[in-house]
Amino acid sequence: MRKLETKTIVVASHNAGKIAEIADLIGPFGFSAKSAKELNFIEPEETGTTFEDNAAIKALASAKASGLPALSDDSGLVIDALEGAPGVYTANWAERPDGSRDFAMAMDKVEKALAEKGALTPEARTARFVSVLCLAWPDGHTEMFRGEVEGVIAPAPRGTAGFGYDPIFQPEGHDRTFGEMTSEEKHGWKPGQPQALSHRARAFKIFVETCLDA
C-alpha cells in the first residue's frame, strides 16, 4: 500500500453533493483540496462495469490532468429485488433527455420497479449503498477502498438532507432515512471510533487507516 505524502489533492468529482461530503470527511485531516469541477477538468466518460472501474477512471483522469494525487468516489444503490439495479447505473436512472439529473424521478422509478416485482414489505426491499474510493497518483498507481451499508428502501421519500437517493434509503438498525439525518449523523467519523454509518464514510475510514498516518 502506498502512503499519501501530501495534503494537497484533487477531489475527482463534478457532483456537488458528493464534493461536499468528501470535503466534510477530509477537512479534519488538514487537506487542501479543489474539485475537478472547480478546476474545469473534462468529466470523463464512466464506461466501467464495476464501481472500482469507474472510480479509477475518474481518479486517474484528475491525477494526470493536475499532476497531483486525486481522490474519487463511485457509489450506487444496489437493490436485491431488482437484481442489483440500479448499481453502477445509479446516476443514469436520474438522467433526463437534456442531460440534467432528477432524483425525485429516479426514486419514483425505483418504487415503480419494486411494485412491479411485488416487493412491498421491508423484507422484500433489502438494499445497500456501496461506495468505492480510489486514490490515484499521476504515475498511474491506484489504491481502492470499499464501504457498504445495509438497509431497506422506504415506501416513500422522507427528509430533505443529503442528496441523490438518500430520502428512500433507511439504514439497518435505524428508523430514519439518510435524508432525515444530519451530515454528522450520516458520516461523522474520527480515528479511534469503531465504525461510521454511511458507505462513503466507511470507505473513507479504510482510506485513512491505510494511506494516512492518523
UniProtKB/TrEMBL annotation:
Entry's cofactor comment: Binds 1 Mg(2+) ion per subunit.
One Gene Ontology term of the molecular function aspect: ITP diphosphatase activity
One matching Pfam family: Ham1p_like
EC annotation from Swiss-Prot or TrEMBL: 3.6.1.66
Listed cofactors: Mg(2+)
CDD domains: HAM1 (cd00515)
UniProt-annotated binding residues for substrate: S13, H14, N15, A16, G17, K18, S75, F163, G164, Y165, D166, K186, H199, R200
Enzyme class: hydrolase
Binding-site positions, Mg(2+): E45, D74
Catalyzed reaction equations: dITP + H2O = dIMP + diphosphate + H(+); ITP + H2O = IMP + diphosphate + H(+); XTP + H2O = XMP + diphosphate + H(+)
Quaternary structure, from the entry: Homodimer.
Family: Belongs to the HAM1 NTPase family.
Function: Pyrophosphatase that catalyzes the hydrolysis of nucleoside triphosphates to their monophosphate derivatives, with a high preference for the non-canonical purine nucleotides XTP (xanthosine triphosphate), dITP (deoxyinosine triphosphate) and ITP. Seems to function as a house-cleaning enzyme that removes non-canonical purine nucleotides from the nucleotide pool, thus preventing their incorporation into DNA/RNA and avoiding chromosomal lesions.
Protein name: dITP/XTP pyrophosphatase
Organism: Rhizobium paknamense
